[in-house]
Amino acid sequence: MKKILLVHGWSHDNYTRSGCTDAWSNRSHFVEALSAHFEVVRFNLPGFCGEKEPERPWFLSDFTRYLDQVIQREKPDIVLGYSFGGAILVHWKAASDNKAVKAFLVSPAIIRRYENKSISISWFKTILPERLIVLGRDFYLVSVVRNPYYAKASSVMRETYRNIVGLDLREDLLKVSDELVLIYGEKDSTTPPEPVKDFLALRKSHHKLHVIENGGHDIANTHTDELVLAIVNLA
Q1: pTM
Q2: Residue 135, domain extent
Q3: How many angstroms separate the CA atoms of 159 and 130, rounded?
């Protein structure tokens, strides 16, 4: 039985300060279904579900180095990254060029889609000192936008979130020489498949893109059987 390592996404409910213990508890049915076909290994990233927060705000490259340590220890045949976990995985693949491990990216955060807000605080940067800008930004995101990914986070995790949330990793896809499998929900509005699909088509990429009909971002819960079947067939 092949070993599959699961890399979870970024959920505000999974912050260590929230008291959770398992970052996959919200997708336990998917993990159970996957366990019928693979030896499943899961872990919690720093700052999530009991793991100590980084001492400083992390960048994607820090998460990539951490994942590399886990892969070296566990020696999986397959690594599956979900949402932000997919971003870490594709960045790791691009940096390491490791062809021994097959990668599945589920609802991966290659490029995100956001609503345009009519309110902007960018003009503050021209008239206020840095400390007041940070305070104003925190107030805006916590009290005005009410972003739970930011409002429920510690200061270190807030800055880490800001370091990774706006990244566009399409160019990283081109750096990966072996085949990646990207699985999206057709109606995913958080990490939509269309920009990635168009990008790969224009560059005649060798990566596989599988879209689950009528699925959203949480296809692990809403389309469990279809998702597991796709992974099994493409593994």
Answers
A1: 0.86
A2: 122-160
A3: 15
